[in-house]
What does this fold into?
Amino acid sequence: MINAYDVIETIKMIDEEHLDIRTVTMGISLLDCIRGDIKQTAELVYDKITRTAERLVPTANGIEAEFGIPIVNKRVSVTPISILGGAVECEDLTPIAIAMQKAADTLGIDFIGGFSALVEKGFTKGDLRLINSIPSALTATERVCSSVNVGSTKGGINMDAIKMLGEIILDTANRTADRDSIGCAKLVVFANAVQDNPFMAGAFHGISEPETVINVGVSGPGVVKAALEKHPDADLTAVSEIIKKTAFKITRMGQLVNNLASERLGVPSGIVDLSLAPTPAVGDSVARILEEMGVGTCGGCGTTACLALLNDAVKKGGVMASSHVGGLSGAFIPVSEDEGMIAAAESGILTLEKLEAMTAVCSVGIDMVAVPGDTTADVISAFIADEIAIGVVNTKTTAVRIIPAIGKKAGDTVCFGGLLGKAPIMPIKTASPARFIARGGLIPAPLHSLKN
Amino acid sequence: MSATTSKAIITVIGTDAVGIIAKVSGKCSEYGVNIIDITQKVFENTFAMIMQVDTAAMTVSFVEFTESMKATGKELGVVIHATHEDIFNAMHRI
It folds into this structure.
């Protein structure tokens, strides 16, 4: 019989330490929905998504009940819509976003990702249409998520795209100003975006993926923190071991859910994204893990080193627990979605500059930060460029999800509710980078030798 | 690593009272669930029981069974989880 201690440990992880599966995400290819007419394309998109993912929510709910594992979100990711957008005879792709929203409503899923474009080396006709449609698409929908990949280690950085996105983000913020500029919380700008990511806002179904696939994103910062609390004086080698063991257990659960969902839906099993994804709930915070490791307040000196250890140990522990690891695997550090990060930002110890440094060692990037509403498009673009450069040069995924909170200033708060949480508005440097951004062009891909 | 067995684990944790085991095993019998093993202890008034059961001949769906167990727990003032065994195997066995 199973060891009683193990049983109690698992039950405790779920009941008291917020262990959950953050998302079961079904990836769906829309390549067979490409038509010349936007109305027809939108109809095909709706039909294909609702037909393919019809049983996603009931199946996930069944697994949740049977195995006692909370599955917080059910999501769908689709082929980057810019690929469909190249064929249609019109500039505005919002009708496709609306079809995605309608499909999400019909299915009862939480988010749908893939209103996306990959432009690190330049734009296609469809890419430009997609980017220009983002503000209206994100205003007209609630569950549709958008992402644009603007840089890669092999391709370099598309500064023309970054310039456009500064303006697009500001436009989106203005159009959703009555809702704390929430449109921007559903838009992420990437470097080295991954094709099998189950997490939002950056999920899309890459063109090298199969027709349909099941990807699972795990969570569990509370479990890691609880494990560390039992060893307040352990040295950092021991801390790393504890995190690895915990990550292993969390990921095994993710792999089990992935296998079950794939089997029951008759859809190939994709990857497990072994991430520590926080929520705004107390006891579900990545920042609090860093503080448990001994950094007084997240954002203080030592934070980057602790995060580097955490991120690496999570990957090492998780890798062996899963048949296929992928996505964004590691520790996420969104501000508004993490109770400890919110507190650290409110205290003024966690600044945007420190966050930027932390993103050199975390799993993704500067995520869910709110800045004053009067921030200029040039500053937003330059802020993105800095973050993208870190990813491109260091061969890692980085991203920016920034919310210019229209009508608000540093020290105020924006509130999105649910998993998106609330964010204190952080001061951002206002010195004008206008001349840099106006230059445009491509920053060439970095050299891969002479590393120092 | 997928659902391979029909075995489930029932855990009962809470304040000790008369008739907890009787009630839980009564429910199992009602649904055609066979008890394979029971570990039970009382630590200073806290009742803890772990029960391994076989659901192969169960007359209701697993979801209905877990819901019914949860409700039984509420009646008794204890917390009852009924969970497929595979989650514990996945997490704790290599």
User: Anything to note?
Assistant: The beta strands of chain B are 7-15, 34-43, 46-54, 78-84. The longest strand of chain B covers residues 34-43.
